Description:
One of its GO terms (cellular component) is nuclear body. By secondary structure, the protein is of the alpha+beta class.
Amino acid sequence: MADAAVNAIRTYLSSKSLMPTAQWLQSYKPSIKLQTPPIVQQKSAESRLLTTDFTSTLQTSAASCFPAGVASPEVQELRVPGPVPVQVLDIEDIGRSRWSQVEAIEMEERGEMRKGHEVIRVVPDEEDNTDMNPPANSAEKGGPHKLLLQDAKGSKAYAFEMTKIGKLDITMPIGTKLILKDFTVSRGVIMLSPGNVDVLGGKIEAWDKKWREERKKVLKEKAGWREGMGFGEDAS
């Protein structure tokens, strides 16, 4: 019974363009609850797989990984049929200045949000502690975004959001999994649009925690900030 469930899970994941290694399937096997419906078993396996590092849990093949030279700026254009499963290592909102993003993070740290030109103190709902206001760094209208992606072989490439893609913003966890299909790479950058990317979800907790802890510092450094400078002071 367990072997049949594993085979069904393998088939289901394959239909999602995810080909887990035999080792991962065997390690997951004890977690399968045979009394639950097959679709629940399969969805549970998918959820678990999406929290793993694809470089150690997915099979690799020429068709399911980035081609050679994908990150080279010397290659004018590449067409990649895919599907290529990837994980997000970094994301940046390049539609907003880095200083404005630092300011938004610091406002959120103080429990504040901006409404027009007015700064408002965010007060949680007394009954259910629900914050009825969006956080200061809300990415609802953010973008376009630049991402650093990694395939199952460990190859990395930058990607640019050409057209707004749902579920893709700076609140997206690091380690989120995407499926890229029939995409173009131009001068080492993958061109993303709603038609060539599926956002599967997922998260790698340790990566995400580290990224969020360091995000403000990284943004400041990219903006040219140095220790001892005042906020917004010219770095030149």
